[in-house]
From TrEMBL, chain A:
GO biological process: phosphatidylinositol dephosphorylation
Protein name in UniProt: CG14411
Domain of life: Eukaryota
GO cellular component, one term: membrane
Bias (Low complexity) ranges: 87-106
Organism classification: Eukaryota, Metazoa, Ecdysozoa, Arthropoda, Hexapoda
Annotated Gene3D superfamilies: Pleckstrin-homology domain (PH domain)/Phosphotyrosine-binding domain (PTB)
Species in which this protein is naturally found: Drosophila busckii
Family: Belongs to the protein-tyrosine phosphatase family. Non-receptor class myotubularin subfamily.
TrEMBL record, chain B:
Protein's name according to its UniProt entry: phosphatidylinositol-3,5-bisphosphate 3-phosphatase
Active site per UniProt: 400 (phosphocysteine intermediate)
EC number: 3.1.3.95
Domain Myotubularin phosphatase: 188-566
Membrane topology reported for the UniProt record: Peripheral membrane protein
Alphabetical list of InterPro entries matching this protein: GRAM, Myotubularin, Myotubularin-like_Pase_dom, PH-like_dom_sf, Prot-tyrosine_phosphatase-like, Tyr_Pase_AS, Tyr_Pase_cat
Root EC class: hydrolase
Similarity comment: Belongs to the protein-tyrosine phosphatase family. Non-receptor class myotubularin subfamily.
GO molecular function, one term: phosphatidylinositol-3,5-bisphosphate 3-phosphatase activity
Gene Ontology biological process terms from the UniProt entry: phosphatidylinositol dephosphorylation
Pfam family, one: GRAM
Amino acid sequence: MMATGSSEMPDHRKRNTFTSYVAPIPGDSRATMDTNEWCLPSDLRDVHLAKPRLLAGEQIVASAPAYMYSPIAPMDSGSGSGSANPSQSNGYNSNNQSSSSSSSNSSRASTFGLLSVTNFKLAFVPLHTRGLTPSAAASDLYQENVYLGRNEITLNNIDQIYTVAELGRAASALQAARMTGSSSRRKKLEPTRQHINGRIAALHIVCKNFRLLKFAFQQQDLKLSGASDYGKLIASALVRFAYPTRHDLSFAYAHNEPYYSTLNSSGVCMFASKNDWTRELIRCGASEWQVISATSVPQLQNRLQAGKYTLPPHFVIPKSCDVERFLQLSLAFCDSRAAFWVYSYGNSAASLVRLAELQPASQQDSKMENIMLELVRKCDERKQLRLLHLTDELPSVQDVQRAHRKLQRLCTPESPAQFMLQDDKFLALLDKTNWLMYVSLCLRQANVAASTLRANISCVLQESNGRDLCCVISSLTQLLLDPHFRTIDGFQSLVQKDWVALEHPFQRRLAHVYTCNSEQSPCSEQSPVFLLFLDCVWQLTQQFPDEFEFTQTYLTTLWDACFMPIFDTFQFDSQAQRARAVNDCKLVLRPVWDWSEQFCDKDKLFFTNPLYQRQRSDYAAALHNQRRSVAVTGQKLAKPTSATSSSASPASRYTINPQLFATQTTVPQDRYLQPAHRIFDLAVWQQCYYRWLPVLDIRGGGQPQLELCQRLLLSNIAKMQRCLELQSLDDLPDAYYEAVGEPRPYINHNQQQQQQQHEEEIAEYVDGVERRRKSMPCANSSSAAAANGLSAALQLSSLSSFFPFGSPIAGDAPHELYDILSTSSELLLDTSSILDKSSIM
Amino acid sequence: METGANIADKLASKTASSNSLDSSSKSSSLGSKQENGVLRDTPFAYLDGEEDQDQKNDVTYVCPYRGPVFGALTITNYRLYFRSLPLRDQDPPVVVDVPLGVIARVEKIGGATSRGENSYGIEIFCKDMRNLRFAHKQQNHSRRTVFEKLQANAFPLSYSGKLFAFAHASAAVQSSAASATVSASWDGWAVYEPLAELRRLGVPNDMWRATKLNESYGICDSYPAVWAVPKAASDDFLRRVAQFRSRCRLPVLSWMNPRTQATITRCSQPLVGVSGKRNADDETYLSYIMEANAQSDKLTIMDARPSANAIANKAKGGGYESEDAYKNVEINFLDIHNIHVMRESLRKVKEACYPTTDDSKWQTAIDSTLWLKHIRCILAGAVRIVDKVETMSTSVVVHCSDGWDRTAQLTALSMLLLDPHYRTVRGFEVLIEKEWLSFGHKFQQRIGHGDNKHSDADRSPVFLQFIDSVWQVSQQFTHAFEFNEHFLITIVDHLYSCRFGTFLCNTEAERVAEDLKHKTISLWTHINSSLDQYLNPLFPSFTRGAEPVLRPCASVRIVRLWKGLYCRWNPGLCAPQHGCQRTRELLSKQDQLFKHVNELRLKLTNRSSNMQTTTRLASPMH
């Protein structure tokens, strides 16, 4: 691999012909580049070859040669302290050992290349002088975003920027950068600052998803005095573009590529129409509630009147209450959020309802609240109701943000020294963040709400504006109760329902728009409430490994997707705001759920949990019975499928009359979860929070490796089932030969040829990284293994423990992994249960 | 399988499931003891050689989770057994079943004048992180005999008795002579054969030889009889080198990479002293070790101690190798603290975990024990050794002060990381036999078997820490170990139980003198005879997939407290089971398909051979 890499220099013409990911780029970017003439020292000659790929509407704002260096690797070994292990010299760093300068220690972790700021992203394109990444083929398996390269982040993702001042002429930029850990020369760059003083030797960029990027800038020779200060160039570009003050400055508006949805075939319910809500009412058997669409309410169409309300386009209210009365009542509540139905459970359809608190002005008089609660109570079959004051039980939005900031500090140590310092008292520091305590509190409240509903009592969640922690608790409660929401489609529908349709203020909470308020501290509205929810869900997936169709990789990817401005799902505070953006600015809406837009099939395969069973047979239910956290006392047998809900197509135009449907719920009542919620039982979401720290990578270990084993098992089963079906022995898994103790029979010539073709496939270069054209692997890719004899037959690749996020390891065999992936997913996507009672006993 | 519906349920099943001590492959005399009392309708299974010592029917166990429960207490020469009287039929009884070897200390609480409920009785402090409190009625005078019997049977060595292991084995010999069940392949005493293990590593070879110089334990009484040493060193030379090492524990081979010849050798500190004495033989000997590895012209010495401690040891005549005196030697300090620090740390872990945990302060409490930090240092040290041996192909010499505590932790752990063989059940047994038992980790002193000096400064959880480190690695590389968590917990339980001879005595010499091989049963015999429950379902099919060399992450961010061991007595804290069930289902499905495929192959070959015979039958016509 090394050899092929070094012989082929990345060539930009080749790069521009590369079209497998994105549509051809209109208007070659070279034009932009040419205007930015370089005065290059001799060793920087090739920098212009390393050019970022640009999307439609994307423009380069500034570019400069820079060194990117790994956040805290390598650890300095040799000191007396037997500290975090120095051997973790991961593939990423060692790849670059040969590049750049010869002073081994400082250059080991750094890569030289071109750093560019565009109106969409911060892109670093490494310039490999010698020896491309030896693991280029393996890198295929690590997650690749169509819109972002491995060394690129969206400007949206940037949380804080720190500048490191130059330490005088003598010190090299890298030295300066390395010394910043101890020195106090690291300074936060305030978004308001338009002018930057002094030279900048290095930039540290802390991302909202805890990624930490560090760049050092080459110090310039005196003869190049004409060129501007590279560091300052990048820093000022970032300050201007990373903190937009209006949402319409976001790249989403510039990127006006048309979108052709492939979502229609999937079962994601967008809750964007009256029918979507009606269907949900029917699914839950909630007969006492009605859907109201804002368009059908004259009051909300009247411009003068509508201003008083901030209501979503569709909402569900008690049938016993007419719309006028409801609107009148809702004025008393914050954000005009009077009781909205979200879910019903059980035969008596106990309801889960979200409610805001009374407006501060009307707080003395709780009459309105009482009337509202009385209306909700009347909807309950047994006229029972429990009110959960989330404000008293849960952290405030600001608390969540504070916890998140502290957690961020723990996950983005600026230097090895700080890493070790934190490590020494890590648990105490973690405790002080309160993050896990908040996760614990959310799980506990959700558990309370779920058991209330299970006891056939309606539950009202009340929170100041009903749009933050209400979303967390309400969606968690539904996850605990309803197996449908534990599928990928179901989960997406749930987020769409509880977060998007009922308007969690994503824009403010994720700080998509920089609001500088002189009185308040900047971005006081910022708070990753959604991440808190995802963390809770992750804890559930850990406690119930076979109950969720999605993996932690899916959840982590979802969090990353929050910072992709191209997808509108997490970009707006309200539906009205979204509608305005579409009408006034011609924004193209692209739901994030259309994952094919961002990822290729291989990446999407890692979203499905190999342990999940789409259908649970009676035998499995019996096993279930014995499990600690789940008590099965369902009076009613589970309906065989949740197909009723997933078949509901959001595109249907016909109005559904709920009267025509049976009012019984179709939600199975014996598959609820009872999670452990003590801090004692919780863990840190390593994949999401630690993935940017290479020192914490367990090579060939951790959950991904286990998952790979499980996928291999599924793949073996699938292959053998196919063999039995076709009555042929051509494609038996290696495990079979291993089990019977025979060498694998000789593979026929045809397949070997195919294999060879594969190897000769021309490598393409993008971003200076070799990428192989995606193609489905040939049927049998283990000819090499067979040649080596039995011993190599089951040699699995070792993955990063942050897979598919960590950095690739050299010497992997990705084709074998493709094979496992594709065959195992056959089973995962197959709805017919492969493990029915008879096959096990 | 436990249903886990209520706490009471869990308590009963928890005691059964997490306490490996109950599982007994052989049970004897179930009915014969019943005449002693009416409450003994379902007594525990008596072990071979186990005999009743005392029995009280009116004792209250002050359970920290369920409150006081009234019941019957039995003391045998092996265990303390309490079973509550069932108050209601549906409530399962509370059972406490503790081997007396686990008991560290027994104390009387309250006097004749004590008032208040359950204030008069005894409190038992255990080595396995729990305390037990029993309340007696003053008027019954039942406490005295219980206390005395406990003392005498829990601390037989302090009362001129013998450990239960001996009685157990002699009774087992009698019963097994009749049934003849003990198969030779199970015999735990035969698991480790020093010369065979050396042969597996490729010794003897051009550079290393095996020697029985210490066969009578004359040169070093805490070393095994068989050593592997550089060929260049003669027997006389070895004798001289031994003089310069603390307690004559000279560098001897622990492990060798068969491919690169890079080695791990272990020893004790050199007797350098304040004056900085030098010894030409010792210096030459280390150069022999270095030269035995052609891959590297350096030798790395890993001193397990913090450098301050190593320097302080000079005052006591010890110290460390100076890089000036020893040519091409590089010395590293691994910052692992001494046995006293570790003992104190574990005491704090117990405080945080038993009887209950405070969830709001849980993380801070664990942090302040520093236990995870110590585990991290051991892991990091082992990873550094692995890095030297594997990545740099440099030979490593490991020592601490005496070379039997931290050194054993480091060598055993790094061997486990380097060599997949040690990650199998048999291999792990060999590893413990070799690095811990034969090289003289002082189990008797560190654990204090049958000894009532509970505050003995020599006691320390060094071996427990090693098992904890192994658990940490097994958590990071779930598929790389043949054994499961239960196997490790079983080892820890029998470390204290005194039922088996494996962990008795301090050195191989003592074990030979006591003839443990014939007078006691090995723990490995017990484990190997019921192997199934100790196996990791993920292992067998992925053996080849396992990394040959493991490099665990040594950071407190990754290292976790072993709740399954330290918090197992609290029924409310049982850790959720990670979905092994589904994997097991898939594995059995796979096995089943193997069979179906076999049938298919058979059918297809039959068919084709049938066709061949038909053609052959037809051919002679031509």
